[in-house]
Structure to design on (361 residues):
């Protein structure tokens, strides 16, 4: 399966969120995946400074590395806020709000207590980032290879959604055990202070199945989140360059492009937090209480209860998502990877639409 995806990817017109197309134009066949979306034939020659070929195994591996760095670093950096958010979700009466949550946590465990759960956070989200970003690129070029050039452009948002959902499915399988340990450490006082303590305790008392108890609700949280994260980012990036940035992307410096990347990522992050928050609350409750079920949690909390902690999560996820896209794109710059621009309308489609408009007049 992946071998065929790689073969398709090498000739795909569909490019990464910010990454140069390397296809060959054809004048003997109709528009197809052999021509990049909206890019002239002169633009398809690989840049001499690129360290790898677009959609090559090395390219996908480096995308995975970018995902490790972007997700592992950012999620670990906001562990204190994540800790308070989780505690708000599982014991709102005690922690009440973000400020009170920080005060109570520091009073009971000291400043060092705010770092509880950093190890499973770093390991878990690094693995998730590897799959999320690396497989997103694989699935995106693979799914686009199934379509002709005009269809790929017209329905590109659906490709973003399908590729990101597929990638996140596997990413959450890697994340789930570490997420379960993290929540247990952060929300059960006295259970364990480190991953080395929590892991054997959970295995001994509940078996390995406990690490995947929250997988289905984790999918319910993360798949909509990731679909919004990638699709909203890609579309926002297009709109920013089209209506906000005062000059073409090709004339922007790499630093300016990274600023636009961060802005698009932050906007996407706000929407991500909203669509995935109820499932996030359920996951926190499930991993705290080994006897709970999704139905019992929703019934106990009610509609209003599943939205507790949304404020800090918007701040956290908005910042996280913006920084993740910034780091991911910066890694591409640092490693001299291909970075094609946002999708542009194919010339064949543009001419056809102009002809239809002319006939309508």
């Amino acid at each position: 399966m992946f071998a065929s995806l790689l073969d398709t990817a090498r000739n795909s017109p569909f490019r990464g969120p910010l990454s140069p197309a390397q296809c060959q134009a054809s004048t003997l066949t109709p528009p197809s995946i052999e021509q990049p979306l909206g890019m002239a034939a002169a633009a398809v020659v690989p840049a001499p400074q690129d360290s790898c070929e677009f959609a090559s195994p090395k390219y996908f591996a480096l995308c995975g590395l970018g995902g490790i760095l972007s997700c592992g670093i950012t999620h670990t950096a906001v562990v204190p806020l994540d800790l308070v958010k989780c505690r708000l979700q599982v014991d709102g009466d005690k922690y009440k709000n973000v400020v009170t949550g920080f005060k109570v946590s520091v009073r009971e465990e000291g400043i060092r207590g705010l770092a509880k759960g950093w190890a499973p956070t770093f390991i878990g989200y690094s693995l998730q980032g590897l799959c999320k970003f690396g497989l997103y690129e694989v699935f995106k070029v693979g799914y686009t290879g199934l379509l002709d050039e005009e269809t790929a452009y017209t329905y590109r948002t659906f490709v973003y959604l399908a590729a990101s959902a597929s990638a996140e499915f596997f990413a959450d399988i890697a994340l789930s055990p570490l997420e379960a340990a993290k929540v247990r450490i952060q929300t059960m006082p006295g259970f364990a202070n480190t991953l080395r303590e929590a892991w054997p305790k959970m295995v001994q008392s509940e078996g390995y199945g406990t690490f995947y108890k929250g997988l289905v609700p984790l999918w319910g949280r993360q798949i909509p989140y990731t679909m919004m994260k990638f699709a909203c980012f890609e579309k926002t990036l297009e709109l920013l360059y089209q209506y906000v940035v005062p000059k073409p992307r090709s004339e922007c410096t790499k630093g300016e492009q990274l600023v636009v990347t961060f802005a698009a990522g932050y906007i996407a992050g706000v929407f991500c937090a909203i669509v995935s928050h109820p499932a996030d609350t359920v996951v926190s409750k499930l991993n705290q209480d080994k006897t709970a079920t999704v139905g019992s949690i929703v019934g106990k909390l009610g509609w209003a209860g599943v939205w507790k902690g949304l404020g800090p999560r918007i701040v956290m996820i908005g910042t996280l998502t913006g920084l993740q896209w910034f780091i991911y794109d910066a890694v591409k710059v640092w490693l001299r990877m291909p970075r094609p621009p946002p999708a542009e309308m194919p010339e064949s489609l543009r001419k056809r639409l102009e002809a239809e408009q002319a006939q309508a007049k």
